[in-house]
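Supplementary notes for students who missed Thursday's class. We covered one full example, reproduced here. Read the sequence, then the structure, then the short commentary at the end.
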Amino acid sequence: YFADWVYNDVNAYIGERENDIYVYTTLDQHIQEAADKILTETIRTNAGKNVTQGAVVVLDKSGAVKAMVGGINYQKSQFNRAISALRQPGSSFKTFVYLTALQNGFRPEDKIGDFPLSIGDWHPENIDKKYHGEVTLREALAKSYNLATVNLAQSLSKPEIIRTAKKMGITTPIQNTPSMALGSFEVRVIDMAVAYSAIANGGYATWPYAIKEIYSRDGYQLYMRESDNENRILEPKAVKNITDMLESVINSGTGRKAKLPFFAAGKTGTSQDYRDAWFVGFTDKYVAAVWVGNDDNSPMKKVGGSSIPAEIWRKVMLAA
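Structure (token representation):
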């Protein structure tokens, strides 16, 4: 999957050519092999839960792709789910809502209401079908309360939430609807990894890349990647606070199965009817996005982001 992606990119960099070239890439063979094995084995052992596909992208904080698994069997399907599939991010999108709030002066310990609400004919619910009253932003994100998040989004500018997500790396269209706060539109797996890398690196824009250098057969340099200009897109204090809150997701919230013996921060995501399950997060060194689901968009059997994706993420990060 990675090689296909690189091959398409090479032509964009130096055009079609007759002669052989050497392309030096960002891939880390060890992380790649581990991610491939972990994803495939975990999905096979959970076949009874109607989960048949998945994707993993691992980046470093600069956007260099260290591993890319676009599916569980390249021989059977060359469709690259890591870069081409469009899937609903569910609650893994909530990070952008809370980040927008933090950039607008909210603090992690500020309270928001987790109460029943209706917007037109839309009646969102929490996954546990309960209401939790007044909760802090930290708790609402850690426990992934839908009602508190929608309430928070209603008090913010929705175009600003969309702008936050876009500048961090989401390239797909985001509809300005109330359900947008719960990730009810489609994203690419690689975009979610890139967006979270902007938090991991302290608030700077990143672009995913795979090619470092290209040489002709006789050693003439045809291309060399220059590092991006540092472009700050998030306020340092907001980055520090959201990192702290995403650490709470793993330590005391829905992401406990992703817990590592060292620093880790991330967010679970589950779309409606368990059609998509995600875990996106980062350590001191790496950022990774994990998605599992089915190509035909059929529901899985209660597979949410807090289960299989969090386990895959943890194993991949340990290997990395």
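Commentary. The radius of gyration is 20 Å. Residues 29-45 form the longest helix (17 residues). If anything here is unclear, bring it to office hours.
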